[in-house]
């Protein structure tokens, strides 16, 4: 479980995910997600803080960032999503398409001295 540094409360957990697609398949993958995954994912996780494609660098990659109250909030929301038949169907379609090469997930907390990131809901 994620623990805050001494003297600091963790009041936000950011799930920063980077995905890499096979060259030439990024738009196809995002179209598949937009049609079959977005609704199910946002139903459980809420709106992402950001959903971004790469302007420079690895143009076959994209990033999305989700905000949670804490690790328990993340675990509960992701468990509900993983049990959703619509999400399960999207994962199957995605696996069959074979567009994704890799995924990297980082769980991050805001630094004490800077403002917390706003969620897409403005929280």
UniProtKB/TrEMBL annotation:
InterPro entries, per database record: Dimeric_a/b-barrel (IPR011008), NIPSNAP (IPR012577), NipSnap_domain (IPR051557)
Domain NIPSNAP: 17-115
Family: Belongs to the NipSnap family.
Protein name according to UniProt: NIPSNAP family protein
């Amino acid at each position: 479980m994620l623990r805050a540094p001494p003297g600091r409360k963790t009041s936000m957990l950011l799930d920063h995910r980077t995905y890499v697609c096979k060259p030439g398949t990024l738009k196809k993958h995002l179209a598949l997600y937009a049609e079959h995954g977005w609704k199910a994912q946002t139903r459980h996780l809420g709106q992402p803080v950001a959903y971004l494609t790469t302007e420079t660098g690895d143009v076959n990659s994209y990033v999305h960032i989700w905000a949670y109250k804490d690790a328990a909030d993340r675990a509960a929301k992701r468990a509900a999503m993983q049990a959703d038949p619509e999400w399960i169907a999207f994962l199957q379609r995605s696996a069959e398409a074979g567009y994704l090469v890799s995924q990297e997930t980082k769980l991050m907390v805001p630094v004490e001295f800077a403002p917390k990131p706003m969620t897409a809901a403005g929280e």
